[in-house]
Each structure stands twice: as C-alpha cells, then as structure tokens.
Design a protein that fits this description.
124 residues
Amino acid sequence: MDIVGLLIQIVVTIVVIAPILWLVGRVLVGKHKAKFTDAIWIVALGTVISAIVGALLGGGVWGSLLSTIIMFVVWLGLIKHFFDCGWIKAFVIAVITVVVAVIILFLLALIGIGVGIGIGALGI
C-alpha cells in the first residue's frame, strides 16, 4: 500500500469507525474512560499497524490468517489500553462496534452512499 492510500484509509476509517467506537466505549466503560480522542488514536494506530503487519506477512492463506489473528489481538490491546478496561470488555466493545459499523455501512449502501471501507479496515 502506498502512503497516499494509507492516509486515505486512515481518514475514512477515523470518520466512520471512531465515532461508533467512542459511543460504544462510553456506554460500556463510561464517559470518563472513553474519550473521543482515544477512539481516534485506537483507529489510527490500528489502521497503521494493520497495514504494516499485512505488508510484512504478505498474502496467501497463512499470511492472511496470521495477520488477522495478530490484528485481532492488537485491536483488543488498543481498546484495552486507551479505554482502560479488561480484555473481555475490550472484546465486547470491538464486537458491538463491528456489528454497528456493518449495519450503518449496509444502510448507507442501501440508500446509495458508498463508503470506501472494507471489513479488513474494521479489524477483522
């Protein structure tokens, strides 16, 4: 991935995922722990680390599988760190965020608004 593509992916992912992550975090850990800037950091760092891990491990079935497992743990670790919660709560936040994001993206696509983001950018 080139640097321009990565920057575009970071911006789009922040615009789409950070507000959802922030709202889910506020509900589950409270407004004092889940700040919007924390959600932005989680999404930005997760996207960059995902691009690096994907580039290092390459394609193929095993590279993709290993990359997915590593990134799942990284995303949970970022949520755990920035929202100051445990692993289970980080997992619940991640799952609810992905479900809400998929629903919102589906509804946007249904009305004809395409967003250049894939499931891979959601940390899956």
